[in-house]
Amino acid sequence: MSETTIALVTGANKGIGYAIATGLGALGYRVGVGARDEARRESAVGKLRAAGVDAFGVPLDVTSDRSVTDAADLIERQAGRLDVLVNNAGISGESGPGWVQDPTTLDLDLVRTVVETNVIGVIRVTNALLPLLRRSKSPRIVNVSSTVASLTRQADPDIEIGPIMAAYSPSKSFLNAVTVQYARHFAGTDILINAACPGLVATDFTGFQAPRTPEQGAATAIRLATLPDDGPTGSFFEDDGVIPW
Question: What is the pTM of this model?
Fold first, then answer.
């Protein structure tokens, strides 16, 4: 197996995911670009390679068992192991005016769709890739969450936390809770798993109406993906440190 550090970033064809892939590539990582859309995936791989990143495409739909299994098989053939998994792929789901998801009128199918990608998809990908991560000397898992997942901040009337997002925000709280369960399971092992908040980033996810760049948003995830062996696990981070649950 290659001694090069191998990473997979889901949803890496654009936005924060692409910035994470770029940042890890700049550190010398070989980066798998996980994405559903073939044209966008290959375009991202091409741009990364042109920038000097050792990148390869990974067809990946996190909502599909078959797609995730095939992705794990591809990474095994390409690299024989995985050192870093960044679960970045996510959706907000449809919202009303003001980017609001009203809990009193919420479409339950919308909730199911958001949770399927943002939570179940992360579990599906993580479990499929665990055999490859266990072959690494220093496996790292980063789940891209959001500050809106913080129940502490959501419940504090003195904190401006953004609009009510009754499908998206709870899905990220659910993701955080799952992250803690994985950390408990991995306690005493060399696998470190944490959640990262990128902040409000100008991407198509936010309609490009946000103050932070994708590179700024990627910084915390990159830091957690490259933690030393004595680094934290089972925590939730932003630029300024730990976010309260």
Answer: 0.95
Tokens of 184: 């408990």
- The more confident residue out of 184 and 211 is 184
CA gap 50, 44 in Å, rounded: 10
- Check if 182 is active-site: no
The answer to whether the CB of 29 falls within 8 A of the CB of 4 is yes
State the catalytic residue, choosing from 18, 29, 168, 182. Answer: 168
183 — alpha (psi -120 to 50), left (phi > 0) or beta?
alpha
Structure-token match 């892939």, residue found = 21
The half-sphere exposure of 33 on its side-chain side, counting CA atoms within 13 A, is 29
For the stretch 85-130, pLDDT in tens is 999 999 999 988 888 999 999 999 999 999 999 999 999 999 999 9
With 0-12 / 13-18 / 19 or more C-beta atoms within 10 angstroms meaning exposed / middle / buried, residue 63 is middle
Contact 208, 191 (CB under 8 A): no
3-state secondary structure at position 64: coil
What residues have CB less than 8 Å from 35, skipping those under 6 apart?
Answer: 10, 11, 12, 13, 17, 41, 44, 57, 58, 59, 60
